[in-house]
Amino acid sequence: MGMRDFKNIIQIAGIIDKAEAEILIAAGVQYLGFPLRLTVNKEDLTDDEAGEIIRSFPKNIHGVLISYLDTAEKIISLAKKICADTVQIHGKIKIDEIKKLGKEAGDLFIIKSLVVRQDNF
Asked: What is the rounded distance in angstroms from the CA atom of residue 75 to the CA atom of residue 109?
């Protein structure tokens, strides 16, 4: 996969179709997010539709699975299914599952969201 420039990551999430993805790629966006397995809100695309779009990306463009899944197995499985090379995890996930994900995910780039608030340990 190669090295990534971690200082300049800008992700656009909620891609609705291939045409929108192409417009964003032409504008210079390299990380396109696909929210799947949400706890709230309706998904914009199915797994198959997201996968079809991600598979059409040039090599320097990254498909991001955005999800509330909470086990390494489910996260890795869905990322592989849609060909995402990046995962953004929302919601609660046990530390052991994050460690397992790090060990078993291969080249998958993992982002964990954090809601900053007083009681968030």
From this structure: 12
Global pTM value: 0.87
Reported as a single tens digit per residue, the pLDDT across 29-57 is 999 999 998 777 777 899 999 999 999 99
Q: In terms of residue numbers, what domain contains 107? A: 11-34+47-112
Report if residue 86 sits inside a domain: yes
* 80: three-class secondary structure by DSSP: helix
Contact by Cβ (8 Å): 61, 25: yes
The answer to whether residue 3 sits within a structural domain is no
Distance CA 7, CA 79 (A): 24
Helix 47-55, helix 18-26: angle, nearest 10: 40
Q: Residue 68 domain-assigned?
A: yes
Can you tell me the distance from the alpha carbon of 38 to that of 5, in angstroms, rounded to the nearest whole number?
28
Pick the closest to residue 31 from 13, 53, 52 (CA basis). 13
Residue 120 domain flag: no
